[in-house]
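Here is an idea for our session: we take a single protein and study its fold together. To get us started, please write out a protein record for me. Start from the sequence, derive the C-alpha cells from it, and show both lines together. Go ahead whenever you are ready, and we will take it from there:
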Amino acid sequence: MAETVEVIGGDYEFTLGLAGKFDVGELRYNPAGTQVSFGTILQKKPFQVCEFSLANYLMMRDRGADWMVATPVFLNRQFRHACILVRKDSPLKTFADLKGKKVGAKEYSQTAAVWFRGMLLDHYGVDWRDIHWTCGKVQRFPPPKEADVTTVDEEPEDMLLAGKLDALLAVQVKDNALPPNRSEEHTSELQSRLHLVCRLLLEKK
C-alpha cells in the first residue's frame, strides 16, 4: 500500500514543486511557515516530517529527546553576517565594534545567533561573553551561566529603534528601515566554500 507523507516547513520558492505522487507513495508539502513548524516540534504535536532549527535540535537531543531524528535535507543554509542590524546613525562600523555593546535578539539559542557568536570569535576576535545580550522574556532554553543575558518584555527591534540597544540580531524584521547588508556573507561563502546549516528536516521515529 502506498504511503502518504506530509512535510511541514517554510514557504520557499524551491519547494513549490516538491509535492506529488510517486511510485512509492504521495508527498505533501505544507508551507505553514517556520513558526508553525518550530511550534510543532517544541510542543510535541503529531507530525511525520518537519522543518526545525539545527541548534535547537541538537540541544533537545542532548536533553534526551530521542523521538525524532534529523535527515540530511537542509532547507536553509547561509552565513549570518546580515542578521546584525544597526540604526542609520550608529557609530558602529565593523563587527569588532560590537565588543562591550548591547545587542538584542529574540532567542539567545536560535541557530542564527549560535553561528553569529562563533563567527564573531573566529573572525573578529569578539568573545560572546563580552557582549551584553538583551533577549525576549520567553526563551526556549536557558542561556549559559557565563553569558551576560537580560530578558525583557519589550521587542528587541523596538528597543533598537528607540536607541536602547546598539545592534539587533534578527533573521526577519518588521521595519523596512532596517535593511540587511549581505556583502560579507557572500565573501565568506566564496572564501570558505561552505554553507552553514541553519534549518533541517526532522522525521518522527
